[in-house]
Amino acid sequence: MEIRIEKLNQEEVNKRGITSWPIWEKEVSRFDWHYDTTEECLLLEGKVNVETKDGKIVSFAKGDFVTFPKGLSCVWDIKEPVRKHYNFK
Fold it and tell me: Fewer Cβ in 10 A, N or C end of the chain?
């Protein structure tokens, strides 16, 4: 299960309707998380390290479009407060 990180241009953001998605915010923290469905998100602010069960660390930050696969279990380690648009598929 792989976490995918992309850079989207404004045209792609508009085409996908990302700015109409809900916003989630979280302070600096560390917590376990499991994805029951695939999640896509666009980071508006913040820096995060996500550690998967196999010990792989994936880092992403403001401007990154991230896709988390269904079934992924991981630990979120928020380094700078996060604000993101998100969508469950």
Answer: C
